[in-house]
Amino acid sequence: MRVTVVLPAGHWDPAREVDRLVADHDGRFRRRVLMQGTKGTEFLLDLETARHLYDGDGLLLPDGAVVRVTAAHEALLEIRAGSMTLLLQLAWHLGNRHLAASIETDRILIRNDHVIAAMVRGLGGLVQEIDAPFDPQSGAYHEQDSRAPDVHAHHHHEHDGHGHTHDH
């Protein structure tokens, strides 16, 4: 079986799920590879370009059934701070080191790295080792993260002659 369509998380019917593909972050960045679900469904993922498969995405099989993508648990660092300002400063330091990071409202998740953990603690951050799924934000010059709103969409107002949205 050949899979050429990825259905974004939350945009497909869970009743169509026949199997799950469990993979870590690196194993979910793919273009063309033979894969096997946890129940034994074998298929060739054959995408036009390499892309990241997010937790909850669906891989559309030729018969209309779906294999759910599930992010495997990985050794991560959960970074928190006593204030939003400090959390933002820590995010800047992590970004300055080009580290893949999942940025949430009150925490940042990165891959476990004792050197970075020491740096974060030295800057006043709180660090805890955890095992959790890892779905970091995509880079600014890579494909758009299917979980995020389209940052390229803009809205025209009535005063410019038309009142509708364009996606670029």
UniProtKB/TrEMBL annotation:
Any GO MF annotation of the entry: unfolded protein binding
Keywords for the protein's UniProt record, in alphabetical order: Chaperone, Cytoplasm, Nickel
SUPFAM superfamilies given in the database record: Urease metallochaperone UreE, C-terminal domain, Urease metallochaperone UreE, N-terminal domain
GO cellular component terms attached to this protein's record: cytoplasm
Compositional bias per record (Basic and acidic residues), positions renumbered to this chain: 142-168
Region listing for Disordered, in residue ranges: 134-168
Compartments (UniProt record): Cytoplasm
Gene3D superfamilies: Urease metallochaperone UreE, N-terminal domain (2.60.260.20), UreE, C-terminal domain (3.30.70.790)
Listed GO biological process terms: protein folding; protein-containing complex assembly; urea metabolic process
Entry function: Involved in urease metallocenter assembly. Binds nickel. Probably functions as a nickel donor during metallocenter assembly.
Family designation: Belongs to the UreE family.
Protein name: Urease accessory protein UreE
